[in-house]
Amino acid sequence: MSWKPTLYDYVHHKNQMDMDYSVEPLLPFVTDTQYLQNEIKRLARTAHSDQDRRYSPVKNETRLSILQATGLPNGQIAADIRLKRYTVGVIGHTELEEQRVSSERVELQNNGGKWQITSIRQLDAERSSAVPAYPPAAAGEDAYYPDYGTHSPSLPYLNYTILPYLDTAGRKVGYDRVKAVEYAEAWWDSANPAYIEFEVDCSNYVSQCLFAGGAPMNYTGKRNSGWWYKGKYNGQELWSYSWAVAHSLQTHMMNSRFGLQAEAVEQADQLELGDVIGYDWDGSGRFGHSTVVTAKDANGMPLVNAHTISSQHRYWSYKDSHAWTERTQYRFLHIHDVL
Fold first, then answer.
1. Is residue 140 scored above 50 in pLDDT?
2. N or C of the chain: less Cβ packing under 10 Å?
3. Which CATH superfamily is domain 136-339 in?
4. What is the pLDDT of residues 9-39, one digit of tens each?
5. How many angstroms separate the CA atoms of 46 and 24, rounded?
6. CA-closest candidate to residue 296, choices 174, 125, 177
7. What are phi and psi of 35, to 5 degrees?
8. For the packed helices 33-52 and 4-20, what is the interaxial angle rounded to 10 degrees?
9. Residue 117, Cβ neighbours under 10 Å: how many?
10. If you write DSSP's letter for every residue of 227-281 in order, what string do you get?
11. Measured between alpha carbons, how far is 161 from 272 in angstroms, rounded to an integer?
């Protein structure tokens, strides 16, 4: 008997699990206790959140793609899968649609002629373990931040003739929220080939949205200052930490004196389309995720787009994420209308 039908059963019952807020549909063939315990907690949070916003799920569909499958020495199968999820729910008489793309590694074991799922692991977790805590830089050195790529010395390159959009002269521009959202909608589930795609891509994607909305780059030639992207040059990846690292992006927006600037507001419902939300999962003061506001629900609360786990019109609080904890803090950043 093939193991593939078990994967399709898993996806079908996972849809039902999210509709029912219960892991019961998975119990006959999923034996990964840690995964089930984590899902119980996540589903309970999601149920409370949905109840608070008077949201009722109506439909949940998921398209399964098997990316690769490998036989393990113990007779198990390890399958990497891609799940594209489409959900519909209602608040009052208003219908809401959401989409999400995630990847998992699922291990299956044949027990007495019956395939069971023994392990489920998310491959594109919103809480990344790849973020190191770098020590402060020595005097005269660039500050080190997580760069999700190769760290190289800053290389000033100020050729405005070739790259006029990097000119940091004091021109004031309007932030076009419509264009920022249009870009966010066009690229929510794929990478624009004009840019490098990072393993942890959330802030790179948000920066692209801001730039599409007219936010001017502040090119300094140094990774730890300004807000800029240049891509690959002479075999090196050139971009500022503020372009691609969540904490650095938010710090730059709040402290910049020209170009891309933002102010923190108190409540999520104060945000407008094209604004940004930061997520500090542990309440440590270090923000590890960024999203961009692309819509509002019937309660006037933000719905966001994001990368890493590619999401479109996801409810802003992320209580349905395994990364969320009771200590999670948010930063609501309103982009200035004139930059």
1. no
2. N
3. endopeptidase domain like (from Nostoc punctiforme) (3.90.1720.10)
4. 999 999 999 999 999 999 999 999 999 999 9
5. 16
6. 177
7. -60, -45
8. 30
9. 22
10. B-EEEEETTEEEE-HHHH-HHHHHHHHHH-SSSS-EEEES-GGG--TT-EEEEET
11. 35
* Averaged pLDDT score across all residues of the chain: 89
DSSP conformation class of 16: H
d(CA 227, CA 232): 16
CA atoms within 13 A of residue 310's CA, in its CB half-sphere:
21
Dig out the tokens for 170 from the structure.
């004091």
Q: How far apart are CA 45 and CA 324, in angstroms?
A: 10
| Adjacent-strand bridge partners of 330 | 279
Confidence grade of residue 128 (pLDDT, cut at 50, 70, 90): low
Lowest mean pLDDT among 98-102, 141-145, 220-224, 322-326: 141-145
> Per the structure block, which two tokens stand in for 278?
């930061």
Cβ within 8 Å of residue 12, ≥6 positions away: none
Same fold, 4-122 and 136-339: no
What fold is seen in the domain 4-122?
Nuclear Transport Factor 2; Chain: A, (3.10.450)
In which band, very low, low, confident or very high, does the pLDDT at 1 lie, cut at 50, 70 and 90?
A: low
Nearest to 276 by CA among 208, 187, 219: 208
Domains of the chain, by residue range, sit at 4-122, 136-339
